[in-house]
Design brief:
Order of helices and strands: EHEHEH
Distance between the termini: 19 Å
Structural class: alpha/beta
Strand order of the largest sheet: 1-2-3
Oligomer: single chain
Helix content: 25-40%
Low-confidence stretches: none
Strand content: 5-15%
Shape: globular
Number of strands: 3
Mean pLDDT: 80
Number of helices: 3
């Protein structure tokens, strides 16, 4: 399980991190750190830092709002490539 669009929760940074820690204890495995329509560069850096400090995977474009229009997972960027490498996926 991955937390998609963490910015849409509209939580202060410390509170969001507390929620992520709680979710990790319940099985969370990753955080969507990059979403071009919902994530600023500052947010991306913050989410990436949280993920690394708490041993979570980072994702980008791995939730499927438009299925079946898209058949490939992720988008072409290093966040998706790293995620796919960890889970053994391919484009």
């Amino acid at each position: 399980p991955v937390l998609a669009h963490p910015s849409t929760l509209r939580l202060p940074d410390r509170e969001l991190e507390d929620v992520i820690i709680d979710l990790k204890e319940r099985g969370l495995r990753g955080i969507e750190t990059l979403n071009t329509s919902k994530t600023t560069s500052e947010q991306q850096a913050f989410y990436t830092d949280i993920a690394r400090r708490h041993g979570l995977m980072t994702t980008s474009g791995t939730d499927f709002h438009n299925f079946p229009n898209y058949t490939d997972i992720g988008v072409e960027n290093n966040v998706s490539d790293e995620f796919l490498g960890k889970v053994g996926g391919r484009r």
